[in-house]
Amino acid sequence: MTPRARHVVIVIGAVAMLAAMAAAQEPAPPQRAIPPEYQNVGVSEHPNAQVPLDLMFMDERGQMVPLGQFFHTGRPVVLQLGYYGCPMLCDVISRNLIDSAKEVELNAGSDYQFVFVSINPLETADLAGLKKRSFIAEYDRPGTADGFHCLVGQDRNIAKLAGAVGFRYKRLELAGQFAHPAVLFVLTPDGRISRYLYGLSLPPRTLKLALVEASAGKIGSSWDKLALMICCYDVDSGRYALAAMRLMRVAAVGTVLVMGLVGLWLFRHGSHARQA
């Protein structure tokens, strides 16, 4: 191989390597210092883990009920851990969830259940009742009241449930305040963790596909089931995205390599032609 040909090969190889690195890597977000009160607060994902359905909690009517009562319906469950006295975060997550649920044709109660469990053992059934009534009023769909459940419980049962789903929270020095992550858990009808949904906002399409996925396709339309076949959940964006995007990145690298080989062939073919 002539020196000029070797130079072309090196340049093409470098371009291909840079393209592959750009396709495979995302820029790392800047690191920020975590306040001491929020250290060790977050989520340790336990995908497909079974939540303990025998844990006892008190519902909004003041009756002790097992957690499994809300999983005997054969429907997926959206679980939120928080507390009714939360000054901002919990209410924002709940209201954004309700807003997204209102944009989805699936109905709470008949298609899925929503369960809110307080992480504050000092909160009462009366507070749970107020929260449930606010959910029902905000959702505003007739016949869906049985789809919303608000619970309180003892510290040991709260800790067991939080540990099962990987929800790490911390009691703050302020009376009745807790540091906790912004996350919803989508559970299968038999109480296994299907999906973690992070952040304050929840796109309606993401909520719907997560419920369809957790139900193993037993709810939702044929189009929803088809969408799940070609989509995967992107944790970074918090949405279901086309899995084909991964193939497009690989195809981009492959295209660069093919163009490089064609360019090399043309270069060598032109050299031979000039010599002839």
Provide a descriptive summary of the structure in words:
The protein has 276 residues and is of the alpha+beta class. The chain folds into two domains: 36-219, Glutaredoxin (3-Layer(aba) Sandwich); 245-276. It has seven helices and 13 strands. Strand 2 (56-58) and strand 3 form a beta hairpin. The two termini are 17 Å apart.
How would you describe this structure in keywords?
single chain, 276 residues, alpha+beta, Glutaredoxin, 2 domains, 5-stranded mixed β-sheet, two-stranded antiparallel ribbon, 7 helices, 13 strands
Structural class: alpha+beta
The CATH homologous superfamily of the largest domain corresponds to: Glutaredoxin
Q: Can you list the strand order of the major beta sheet?
A: 6-5-4-10-11
Distance between the termini: 17 Å
The averaged pLDDT comes out at 80
Sequence of secondary-structure elements? HEEEEHEHEHEEEEEHHEEH
CATH class of the largest domain: Alpha Beta
Q: Assign a percent range to the helix content.
A: 40-55%
Number of strands: 13
> What characterizes the major β-sheet?
5 strands, mixed
Compose a concise summary of this entry.
The chain is built from seven helices and 13 strands. By secondary structure, it is α+β, with helices and mostly antiparallel strands.
How would you summarize the topology of this molecule?
Layout: H1 3-24, E1 42-43, E2 56-58, E3 64-66, E4 77-82, H2 89-102, E5 113-118, H3 125-139, E6 148-151, H4 155-165, E7 167-168, E8 170-171, E9 178-179, E10 183-187, E11 193-198, H5 204-214, H6 222-230, E12 231-234, E13 239-242, H7 244-275
Parallel strand pairs: 4-5, 5-6
Antiparallel strand pairs: 1-7, 2-3, 4-10, 8-9, 10-11, 12-13
Helix pairs in contact: 1-7, 2-5, 5-6
